[in-house]
Hints:
Radius of gyration: 18 Å
Strand content: 15-25%
Shape: globular
Number of helices: 9
Oligomer: single chain
Amino acid sequence: MEVNCEGCAGCCIDWRALASERSDHERRGPRTPLDDAYNLVPLTRGDARDFLDAGLADALTPRLWRDESGVTVDGVELAAIDGKPVFFLGLRKPPKPVAPFDTDPRWLPTCVFLDPATLQCRIHDRPEYPTECAEYPGHNLELGSTTECERVEATFGGDRLLDDDPPDDLSGLLLGPQAVGEKVFVYPDPDDLAGVLARLLADDLTREDRARFVAAAVAGRPGTTSTDREQFAAAFADAKVADSWAGRAVAEWESLEDGGDAPRPDAAERVEDDRGAPPTPGW
């Protein structure tokens, strides 16, 4: 597997606004996500623990799905297992001033860890770098699914997927029951989410809202729908006080876009670098 990522980062940016046709490949199944994020990276339980330990819990966000046969919270019918809402845990995508595919800079939803100037990941060589990101697009190739590299090629031209053989050391796909507690998590108490769903639908989750889901992911028992309550309490306490460079940068990026500031990728030096963001090596 070999990919050409320079000037692209298509798997890290919601570039649909640049395309003539909108892709909704994440919304073709029987359950519709409540959020509108594109290419959400599903983190594993180990990933969630690594982010929590690194003080980066405020960079994470949940994804839940609608399902008429699930459980109802705040009037929303949610996908559930054993009456407990199920969710993915992914990376936040604030607006950033980016210029992928040789386009002019534009405000686009972008991975919280992507440097908008170099279009490289700031945590690529760090312990918390997600497994799914490290192996992308390996799982797509293994399953015979279209990769984001190919979508970019079809829309903007160029060569991005240079070798379509999945790597030999690819980790498990975590499909079906084996995903429960490892990639598909359950929230233990639906009543705790009263008010949270309304904020999620309004794209206005609080730090504490997101921390609840981080704690549930970390404290879930793999292969089951049970939760270690003591571990949940400890993880929740740590997650809700997380105050990382990444979380603080999100608020400023949102403020700059809302204020009508011109999209300038070099603003990352002030918004992210000056807050302690790890550097990227450049191309």
